[in-house]
Design a protein that fits this description.
aspartic-type endopeptidase activity; transmembrane helix; 22% helix; aspartyl protease; binds 2-acetamido-2-deoxy-beta-D-glucopyranose; Peptidase A1 domain-containing protein
């Protein structure tokens, strides 16, 4: 069991990934309070979600009386804000949170919080005073903090505060703990900017569904895949895809292999992560989606594919026997303002190859970021992940409802990218034969990591192999030793018996019992051996983007 201790060395760093600055900040498509009709008087108001250029989703919280826009992140579990928070108390502790875009460091404070219609007193949060290490200017992107909606066990703030501190839990846990009659779930839907056909109003609900979408509770319940033996740091809201679960632009399942050691054959482990703009997929999957597009180019600086903006790519992902199509406006993005060498706009392939550093120890394969999440209405039931939940302590699960109608999506794409004329079927958009498809290059650094990852993922088997071998050797030694003793004792006994017989006495000659102690000793030293010897080199540098 202690083998898993190694995994804890890798902190939950995979929270935010915004690969480069967004060029266009479109108008917010937030929810106005008037849009909640009076026929839902008994309902609590949903939390409005603003869409910042399809790259960040932001909601307001109130902390110590101040309204603060925070990024919504289902991939991490801490709350942090910048600026001043009045009516707060200092815990006297500080912590540094590491994200893919940089570090957030500061003191842990407590203040009263309101999130939607839910209030929590003395919520623990991190007051960040220095965001200079972020690769992005959060203020200009319209937010001043981040709310982690991931599992409480992954919260660094919680882990830093004393275990008898009743205020140390993450926001969702605090909300669910104080209402034992409601079920522990959230739902959310994300709007799509620059899509005239989009009818989705970005919103998040707690313990209730969005009116008109109640159906989601009838969708298949996808078990939250638990990281084996690890309920803390690296647990995410993650689930298995179906077998052959990613359908490529040619309508065929994409061939892939999971890096998660325990994943059932043909299935991938996918994380729901609203903190990632671009979904992260195995390199072979990204190549299969974009490598056959005429004019596709690998962009080395940003480590992603670029393709002509007019290329309509239909892909889908399957969960629980249901196909979830991805809107072609989400498969490639014009939001980044990239241009080719002749100055013409080119689009970004949004399903970016995952760098092995993100899942070095093989906890998951896919990070379903915003470009995928816009296509589904998502329900996450935290169940017994909530500490001290008396009412809802079943297993955690995820339910998904498709929000993308393929015919309507086609029409949207034609309007937005093809100037209203459906030229999607023209020959310049034919996919190249698979044999002529391009592959993205693996960088030297990544190759090295890949190798290390392979070694690490095979490590349990190497461990098992060595263990068996070691047991064999030890067994042999013990047996030989025992035998020698037995032989010696038998000889001695014989001699004694002979002597005693001579003296007219009887005895049982075989009693070399102390040999068994030796069996236990070396076995326990086998247990401890790999932890000291097998300590992997540090890969922390690999986490940085
Ligand atoms: C929810 O909060 C809004 C203001 O934020 C308020 O107008 C509304 O009455 C509240 N609803 C409930 C059910 O508490
Ligand atoms: C926080 O909320 C609690 C409960 O509503 C209240 O008693 C307390 O005065 C509030 N604290 C501050 C600093 O406003
Ligand atoms: C902020 O942090 C950076 C390193 O991340 C450091 O170089 C800089 O001096 C810090 N600024 C202040 C004002 O503390
Ligand atoms: C970040 O953006 C804000 C608003 O656009 C600006 O006032 C501030 O100077 C910027 N900060 C940095 C470090 O560039
Ligand atoms: C607890 O949740 C139930 C069901 O969602 C709701 O009707 C009730 O008003 C909530 N109670 C409090 C104190 O928030
Ligand atoms: C959703 O509910 C509608 C009726 O409101 C029904 O016609 C439809 O089949 C349901 N869909 C699913 C996926 O349950
Ligand atoms: C994408 O799917 C839509 C809807 O099924 C279809 O009309 C369109 O032809 C497809 N486009 C391509 C390029 O496969």
């Amino acid at each position: 069991m202690r083998l898993l201790f190694l995994f804890c060395l890798f902190h939950a760093v995979h929270a935010v990934k915004i690969p480069f600055e967004v060029h266009t900040v479109s108008s917010f498509s937030g929810l106005t309070s008037s849009s909640t009709s009076s026929s839902y008087l008994e309902r609590r108001d949903p939390v409005a979600i603003k869409n910042v250029a399809n790259s960040i989703y932001v909601s307001d919280i109130t902390l110590g009386g101040r309204t603060i826009p925070v990024m919504l992140d289902t991939g991490s579990s801490d709350l942090w804000v910048t600026g001043q928070v009045s009516n707060s108390q200092d815990s006297g502790k500080s912590v540094t949170l590491e994200y893919a875009v940089g570090e957030a460091a500061g003191d842990i404070l407590y203040a009263n919080l309101t999130f939607g219609n839910h209030s929590v007193s003395n919520q623990a949060f991190l007051l960040v005073t220095n965001t200079s290490s972020f690769s992005t200017n959060i203020t200009s992107q319209g937010y001043s903090g981040l709310i982690g909606l991931g599992p409480n066990s992954g919260s660094s703030i919680r882990n830093k505060l004393n275990s008898d501190d009743t205020n140390r839990d993450a926001v969702l846990d605090r909300i669910f703990q104080q209402n034992q009659t409601s079920r522990n779930y959230i739902t959310f839907m994300l709007g799509r900017a620059n899509d005239p056909g989009s009818t989705v109003t970005g919103q998040l609900t707690i313990s209730e569904t969005v009116p008109g979408y109640e159906n989601i509770t009838n969708q298949p319940k996808l078990d939250v895949v638990t990281v084996p033996g690890l309920t803390d740091r690296d647990q995410h809201w993650q689930m298995y895809t179906d077998v052959d679960g990613i359908i490529g632009p040619d309508g065929q399942p994409i061939v892939y292999e999971s890096i998660v050691p325990k994943a059932p054959k043909g299935q991938l482990v996918a994380i729901i992560d609203s903190g990632f703009t671009l979904p992260q997929v195995p390199r072979s999957v990204s190549d299969a989606i974009y490598g056959r597009v005429q004019g596709a180019q690998w962009n080395t600086d940003n480590e992603l594919w670029t393709i002509p903006c007019g290329q309509m790519l239909n892909i889908s992902v399957k969960f629980g026997g249901i196909n979830f199509p991805v809107h072609p406006l989400d498969t490639s993005s014009s939001d980044f303002g990239l241009r080719d060498s002749s100055g013409n706009p080119i689009c970004v392939g949004t399903f970016q190859p995952i760098t092995s550093a993100f899942s070095l120890l093989g906890e998951y394969d896919l990070i379903l970021g915003m470009a995928f999440l816009r296509n589904i209405y998502t329900l996450i039931d935290l169940g017994k992940f909530v500490d001290g939940s008396a009412n809802d302590n079943g297993d955690a699960f995820i339910q998904l409802l498709s929000m993308t109608n393929t015919a309507a999506a086609h029409a949207d794409f034609v309007n937005v990218r093809l100037g209203g004329v459906d030229t999607a079927g023209q020959s310049q958009y034919y996919l190249l034969p698979a044999s002529e498809g391009q592959s993205s290059p693996e960088s030297a650094k990544e190759k090295k990591q890949h190798l290390e990852e392979k070694v690490l993922s095979r490590w349990p088997y190497i461990f098992l192999g060595s263990f068996v071998l070691f047991c064999g050797i030890v067994g042999l030694i013990v047996w030989r030793c025992c035998c020698r003793r037995r032989c010696a004792e038998r000889k001695k006994a014989k001699a004694l018996a002979k002597k005693r017989r001579m003296n007219g006495l009887q005895m049982n000659p075989l009693k070399g019992g102390d040999a068994y102690y030796q069996l236990d000793e070396p076995t326990s030293s086998i247990h401890s051996l790999p932890y000291s010897e097998g300590h992997p080199p540090s890969y922390h540098s690999g986490y940085r983007v």
